[in-house]
Amino acid sequence: MWMKAVIQRVSQSQVNVGDSVVSTIKNGLLIFLGVKKGDTEEHAKKLADRCRNMRIFEDTDNKFNLSVKDVHGEVLVVPQFTLLADTSHGRRPSFIDAEEPHEAERLYEYFIKTLNSVGITAKGGRFGECMLVSLQNRGPVTIIMEE
């Protein structure tokens, strides 16, 4: 297992830190992203490409045939090291597999930059901060993806 993403199809999503709005999107994807020790830019690029091309939006026949790029949607990426929790022992999760903050932040920013470089409007949360994430999950549709 490498980098992990939880992808939610949303009508809207927003990230606040304290009383400030950090980012907001309308129709698109909210992606919670966990970076694992050993992840590289290549992992981030592949996962960003898979997320961008994941067909989880309906076409005119109500079939999942369209991607976020096809519907001209936006993407909000929120860093979430807790996706890498190991809960196999005891009652307290271990985060030993999560990448060190400096490198995790670099790969998180690279993931967002990769999406933006291919024409997707991608925004981020605030790395290392306590964030309030709100969303309207449309469907609901939630996909877990690993690279």
Helix content: 10-25%
Mean pLDDT: 96
Helix tally equals: 2
CATH architecture call: 3-Layer(bba) Sandwich
Low-confidence stretches: none
- Radius of gyration (CA) equals 15 Å
The total strand number stands at 8
State which percent range the strand residues make up.
35-45%
Provide the structure class.
alpha/beta
Overview of this protein structure:
It is globular, with a radius of gyration of 15 Å. With about 150 residues, it is α/β, with parallel strands linked by helices. A hairpin with a 5-residue loop joins strand 4 and strand 5 (about 65). The protein has one domain: D-tyrosyl-trna(Tyr) Deacylase, Chain: A, CATH 3.50.80.10. The protein is built from 2 helices and 8 strands, in the order βββαβββαββ. Strands 1, 2, 3, 6, 7 and 8 form a 6-stranded mixed beta sheet that branches. Strands 4-5 form a two-stranded antiparallel ribbon. The chain has helices spanning about 40-55, 100-115, and strands at about 5-15, 20-25, 30-35, 55-60, 65, 75-80, 120-125, 130-145. The longest helix has 17 residues, at about 100-115. Helix 1 (about 40-55) packs across helix 2 (about 100-115).
